[in-house]
């Protein structure tokens, strides 16, 4: 069996462990895999994890436009798809298309070049709704409508769609996608088992955390959609609390504005750190006293933060500031804290309750639905066998 694995990124991505896990499962089955990927900043064509395996990797040079420029990124991605066209002449039995803002163009070419191949589209976030929620474009404006039509073409032509939350499946169905061809498979972490971090491993984060404080942590991309404003607003409310310290760990287009906002409001119990290596994520989450995962209002309908699985495996309290009406929020609320995206007072209350030992006990459960082995296997089965919706 021959499978085309058409990526919309390079392997220099936070999703690398997901992609490698899926590819490993396909290769275990003796499948002949061809990858089409972006090559950014001269990285190697094939990642070291895939050396000496039955795989062909086609790397197409790509230069990332500025993140703030949605239209420049969109055009660059269209050009990348067009450059990939010449590599679509070999017949494939199945094709996996990574989440992409220009998926409609990809599926248009596949309809022409690969009409018999079974096509799976992985929707990691829902464009253009995410751009509308971020304020980049106006929802239901002309530009939104054009982007929406392009994405709907991809949904229609895909034989199977894999998305990463029940909320996202609901959004797709409300957008007219046949629910019978949508599977929900959560993103996973770097391992199956909970992270059992030893106290002596505190040295990995000792330059960041101070044990004398209650350390409240946001770690990840610092953009508009991540709504780190909620985190800063809570720090402002608690700026005179001498027992708590806030940490923003990561980079992004919105970071400088947040630093300025904290400074202008006299917040001294906060630190801003650069993005840390992925291998430190388990230590960052495990040694935090509270992890906060915020999103802008209604963004839960179009995305689920990739850090979720790793946070769950670390067994520390988490506040999901994503919206109490979200399906994921309802699912997780018995085990972690769920609040609305615009409620810093509630986050402040949770922090104070935890500090004072008055918080209601939460069972830090790790869901089997986030299993690396289970979920990567499901991906491979769907790509190759088109088994249908997961129960």
Question: What does this 3D model show about the protein?
Answer:
The chain has 13 helices and 13 strands. The chain folds into two domains: 2-188 and 371-385, Rossmann fold (3-Layer(aba) Sandwich), CATH 3.40.50.2000; 199-368, Glycogen Phosphorylase B (Rossmann fold), CATH 3.40.50.2000. The protein has 391 residues and is α/β, with parallel strands linked by helices. Helices cover 35% and strands 17% of the residues. Helix 6 (166-174) links the parallel strand 6 (160-163) and strand 7 (182-184). The protein has helices spanning 16-28, 70-84, 103-113, 129-133, 142-157, 166-174, 228-237, 255-264, 281-286, 308-314, 327-332, 344-356, 372-385, and strands at residues 2-6, 32-39, 55-61, 94-97, 118-123, 160-163, 182-184, 214-219, 244-249, 270-273, 290-294, 318-321, 337-339. The strands form two sheets. The chain has a seven-stranded parallel β-sheet, with helices on both faces. The longest helix is centred in the middle third of the chain and has 16 residues, at 142-157. The model has no long low-confidence stretch (mean pLDDT 93). Helix 1 (16-28) crosses helix 13.
């Amino acid at each position: 069996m021959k499978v085309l694995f058409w990526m919309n990124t390079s392997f220099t991505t936070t999703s690398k462990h997901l992609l490698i896990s899926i590819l490993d499962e396909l290769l275990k089955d003796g499948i002949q895999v061809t990858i089409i990927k972006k090559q950014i900043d001269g990285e190697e064509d094939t990642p070291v994890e895939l050396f000496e395996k039955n795989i062909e990797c086609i790397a197409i040079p790509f230069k990332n436009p500025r993140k703030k420029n949605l239209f420049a990124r969109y055009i660059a991605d269209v050009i990348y798809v067009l450059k990939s066209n010449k590599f679509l002449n070999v017949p494939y039995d199945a094709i996996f298309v990574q989440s992409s803002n220009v998926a409609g163009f990809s599926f248009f070419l596949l309809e022409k070049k690969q009409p018999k191949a079974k096509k799976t589209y992985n929707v990691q976030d829902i464009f253009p709704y995410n751009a509308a929620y971020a304020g980049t474009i106006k929802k239901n404006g002309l530009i939104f409508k054009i982007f929406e039509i392009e994405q709907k073409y991809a949904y229609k032509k895909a034989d199977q769609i894999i998305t990463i939350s029940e909320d996202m499946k609901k959004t797709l169905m409300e957008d007219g996608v046949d629910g019978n061809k949508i599977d929900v498979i959560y993103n996973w972490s770097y391992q199956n088992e909970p992270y059992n971090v030893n106290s002596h491993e505190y040295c990995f984060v000792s330059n960041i955390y101070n044990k004398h404080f209650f350390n409240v942590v946001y770690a990840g991309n610092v953009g508009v959609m991540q709504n780190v404003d909620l985190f800063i607003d809570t720090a402002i409310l608690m700026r005179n609390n001498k027992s708590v310290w806030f940490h923003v760990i990561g980079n992004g287009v919105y970071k400088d504005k947040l630093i300025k906002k904290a400074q202008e409001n006299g917040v001294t119990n906060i630190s801003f750190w650069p993005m840390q290596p992925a291998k430190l994520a388990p230590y960052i989450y495990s040694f935090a006293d509270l992890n906060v995962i915020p999103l802008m209002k209604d963004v839960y309908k179009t995305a689920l933060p990739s850090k979720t699985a790793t946070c769950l495996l670390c067994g520390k309290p988490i506040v999901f500031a994503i919206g109490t009406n979200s399906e994921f929020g309802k699912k997780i609320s018995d085990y972690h804290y769920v609040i609305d995206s615009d409620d810093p007072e509630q986050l402040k209350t949770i922090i104070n309750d935890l500090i004072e030992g008055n918080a209601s006990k939460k069972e830090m459960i790790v869901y089997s639905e986030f299993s690396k082995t289970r979920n990567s296997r499901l991906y491979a089965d769907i790509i190759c066998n088109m088994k249908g919706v997961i129960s």
